[in-house]
Amino acid sequence: MTDRSLVHDLYRVSAAHPDRIAIVAERADRRPGTPPVRVSYAQLATYVERFAHALAALGVGPGDPVAFALPNGWESPALFFACLRIGAEAVPVLPGYGARDLRVVLEATRARVCVVPDFWDGVPRAEVLAELATTLPWLRRRVVVGDAAATGALDFTEHFVRTPHERHRRGAWLRVPPDLPARVCLIVNAVGLDDTHTMTRHTSRSLRAGAGAGAGAGAGAGAGAGAAAAAAAGPPGPHDVAPSAVPVALLPSLLHTVIGPLLRGGTVMLRDVWQPRRGEPAPPGGEVGGLFLVPVAEVEDALLGHPRVAEAALAACPDREHGELTCAVVVPAGAPPALTDLREFLLARGVARAHLPARLELVGAIPRDEAGEVHRPRLREHLQLRWARR
């Protein structure tokens, strides 16, 4: 029985189905008429190998943590498997984390490299990382997707995507660590209700167990079984497509919408921002929040019970320190309520402290669509413009 890592399983699936689509990446800012990014299994395997050599070129080796705080896209899965390939430890970070929480993760993991977008969700992420890096001596490289020159960072596209490091490496082919299946390959961060961060470490074995027995070679089935299953798999059906707008930095999303489907030869569909299209249902109740997912419908209903609230809606508001905060947008009924009044009122109604709004925006009217529902994209744009001026 041969013990293989997840990256070996991915390479076997890629060899069996090179032309099958592995990842479809949908971007909210995609121009009309432009198709989403599609990455085949052959392309994914190529990028994993290239990214692995790109990391090695930066001095990353076995056991070195590599953090990446990116919105959902094909780059994060490729970086994850590239870390596995060289024995490094992948540290996916929620893209909405602000300076305080990103610092906690980088300090706890001692990440050698950190990859961020230049600008995301109303916050200049590259600038935030550049400011943090001055006090993080172990952080060797800042890598930026987008405009890297503005902060003196390494350009992700140039170094990772366009440069064929795998063809020009001096000496032998990049060595695969022999103990790869048992080596820590992933560090997952989670935040508790008291704002404390916990770090959980995983190996290829624990991730395979978490993704389910159908993901590649099961722990007791041997590597050959996984290869045979991948080779015998036919064209993917509807059940082999895994859509997700939940950040892959969260372990359940990474396991069940990335690792599991890819090792079964399915198609991963990632969306950086959940934006409802015509005829597409919203998630039940809806959620907002960077550190905590806040049940929108529940809190909005509770707010409407306040005697000085005529209309209410919740929206995520960008914040440089925390990434984003929950904002209560209120049309007053008479004398405007204060934020402290609303928070005390919600606590008395049984709303969890972690779900309380951190900001209050008083407006004359809440934007609504033709059906009379809250027009949340327009509301979010309004908040971004308002708080950008403050």
Automatic annotation (TrEMBL):
The keyword Transmembrane is assigned to this record: no
InterPro entries per the UniProt record, alphabetical: AMP-bd_C, AMP-bd_C_sf, AMP-dep_synth/lig_dom
Gene3D superfamilies recorded: 3.30.300.30, 3.40.50.980
Record key words, sorted: Ligase
Domain AMP-binding enzyme C-terminal: 298-372
AMP-dependent synthetase/ligase domain ranges (all copies): 13-145
Top-level taxon of the source organism: Bacteria
Pfam families, A to Z: AMP-binding (PF00501), AMP-binding_C (PF13193)
SUPFAM superfamilies documented for this protein: Acetyl-CoA synthetase-like (SSF56801)
Family as reported in the entry's similarity comment: Belongs to the ATP-dependent AMP-binding enzyme family.
PANTHER family: ACYL-COA SYNTHETASE, MEDIUM-CHAIN ACYL-COA LIGASE ACSF2, MITOCHONDRIAL
Identification of the protein by name: AMP-binding protein
Species whose genome carries this gene: Paractinoplanes ovalisporus
